[in-house]
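Summary of Year 1 activities. Much of the first year was spent building the evaluation harness for sequence design. The harness presents a backbone, in tokenized form, and records the residue chosen at every position. We chose the following record to illustrate the format because it has been used consistently in internal testing since the harness was completed.
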């Protein structure tokens, strides 16, 4: 019997399988390249190693290879039958999420961690803004996320991965300096943790330190494999920093080369993001829209490509965070937001919308702004902003709605309302990239 790096027993007699499994876990936990290959090596060394098969399923799933991930999940369930109780519970919790059962997956995750609090691979899908809690649709998901991690801090505190995800939860709850101290500690232990570099960018964004964020990411990103899970999204942060600092040529160069859809994971030389599609859609739409808020002219060709990519990869609504951004793409290209709104209303009526009606109503707000109805856009955004947390994503990403409201105030001649809105944001970043705004 071997042990993983958290001291948990794993059912393999092979040291080679153990080492490859540990490498695969760290690749998934750090968003590094090579997780799939590492788990495959573990299975070559021990074809009956169920946790390696479950790890492979998770690595495939986060890269949006859903059919492959579900096939691996089926195999993992079959292989784990004779393993320990912990490993059976581990595989069940991971596979439920991959099988499209997020509510059951979160319940299984909580039950598992109550008994085995050091099981980081089981905890990981419940962390972050795209995780089981992040995409739960609940209004209080941010403090819920932090509470879960606080409970586990005695068991996992000091580990580079755990410190990074807890720092993210602290930052999303507005505890910026606590988050800064923790992410600095995490990155000192493992400076190549891509999730950690991403979280550092969020901390600096919330503090309004765009120049420091750009300097940090410019030093960190070149050594990160383009095949890595976070390459597109960290590049989006670079582009957003450059935009906020008025480095417009740099912002557009980064966007076209590393964020806009078009790249391929197996061909790093090809310009554009290779995905995963959820990042390519939401980051692409967010950059194009925020560039216009900052005063840049509309790039119709880029917008049309973005809309086509979104429609190709998300033919039907179902992920709240994506659906909001799809509404923005439709609004920017003259598409029928009302048709998407009707489809979202059907999901609400069928009880299939965890985030409720805020997704649909935000889409209608962006549509009002796109057609130049400033008063209607203001009314709608003012109503919906308190519930935007339910769509998922980070505070930085949800600023898309906040900055659109700010721009609508200015276009409607309501500068005092714009200044009052910024003042109410309390700890949030003081710098905003909206053309015509002056505090």
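For this record, the design step produced the sequence shown next.
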């Amino acid at each position: 019997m071997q042990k993983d790096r958290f001291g948990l027993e794993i059912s393999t007699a092979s040291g080679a399988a153990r080492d490859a499994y540990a490498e695969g876990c760290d690749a998934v936990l750090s968003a590094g390249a090579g997780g799939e290959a590492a788990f495959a090596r573990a299975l070559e060394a021990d074809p009956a190693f169920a946790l390696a098969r479950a790890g492979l399923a998770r690595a495939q799933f986060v890269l949006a290879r859903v059919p492959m991930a579900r096939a691996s999940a089926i195999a993992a369930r079959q292989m784990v039958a004779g393993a320990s109780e912990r490993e059976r519970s581990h595989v069940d919790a991971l596979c439920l999420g991959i099988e499209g059962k997020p509510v059951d997956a979160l319940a299984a995750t909580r039950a598992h961690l109550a008994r085995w609090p050091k099981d980081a691979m089981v905890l990981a899908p419940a962390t972050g803004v795209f995780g089981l809690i992040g995409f739960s649709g609940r209004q209080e998901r941010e403090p819920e996320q932090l509470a879960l991690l606080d409970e586990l801090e005695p068991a996992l505190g000091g580990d580079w991965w755990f410190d990074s995800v807890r720092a993210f939860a602290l930052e999303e709850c507005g505890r910026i300096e606590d988050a800064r101290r923790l992410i600095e500690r995490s990155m000192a232990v493992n400076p190549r943790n891509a999730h950690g570099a991403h979280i550092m960018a969020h901390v600096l964004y919330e503090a309004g330190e765009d120049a420091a964020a750009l300097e940090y990411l410019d030093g960190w990103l070149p050594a990160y494999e383009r095949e890595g899970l976070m390459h597109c999204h960290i590049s989006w942060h670079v582009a957003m920093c450059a935009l906020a600092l008025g480095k417009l040529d740099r912002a557009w160069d980064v966007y076209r080369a590393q964020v806009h859809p078009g790249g391929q994971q197996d061909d790093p030389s090809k310009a554009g993001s290779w995905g995963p599609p959820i990042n390519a859609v939401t980051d692409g739409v967010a950059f194009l829209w925020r560039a216009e808020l900052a005063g840049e002219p509309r790039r119709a060709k880029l917008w049309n490509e973005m809309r086509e990519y979104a429609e190709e990869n998300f033919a039907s609504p179902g992920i709240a965070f994506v659906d909001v951004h799809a509404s923005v793409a439709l609004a920017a290209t003259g598409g029928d937001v009302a048709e998407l709104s009707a489809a979202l209303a059907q999901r609400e009526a069928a009880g299939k919308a965890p985030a409720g009606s805020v997704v649909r109503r935000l889409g209608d707000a962006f549509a009002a702004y796109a057609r130049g109805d400033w008063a209607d856009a203001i009314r709608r955004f003012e109503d919906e902003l308190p519930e935007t947390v339910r769509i998922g994503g980070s505070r930085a990403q949800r600023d898309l709605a906040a900055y659109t409201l700010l721009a609508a105030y200015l276009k409607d001649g309501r500068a005092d309302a714009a200044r009052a809105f910024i003042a109410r944001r309390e700890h949030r970043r003081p710098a905003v990239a909206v053309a015509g705004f002056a505090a």
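DSSP finds 22 helices and two strands in the chain. Quantitative recovery figures across the full test set are reported in Table 2.
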